[in-house]
Amino acid sequence: MAYHIDQLQPGMSASIAKTVTEADIILFAGISTDVNPAHLDEEYAKTTMFGGRIAHGMLSAGFISAVLANHLPGAGTIYLSQTLKFKAPVRPGDTVRATVTVKEVNVAKNRVVLDTVCTVAGKVVIEGECQMMPPVRAAAPTGTA
Asked: What is the pTM of this model?
């Protein structure tokens, strides 16, 4: 399902939830090459301000992308920009809920601005805003055969 620009209205919202596993953290470290010991080494991580391992912030931010691509606006949507404020850590085993909410719709420019937030147990861990270009409806054929 994909929403076209003329179907989007302020206040529309969609969410997904994903529990961050050990495998997710290891795979993300390998794909991103971010091998910070705060994510991978419990003994090191115990000495940090977090008192233990935390998931990569961008791993959790990726769940926002999943909502945008798969739900709202949906398939064919193009990411134009994203701001992120990391408010609290995500730990292995935490369930992250990513929610996007339509804030502004500009039909003439085919742009939509959405508030983005990730929570764990109701606590905000990431907040931000993105701008997207939703898919455009195909033009109806004109003329005669």
From this structure: 0.90
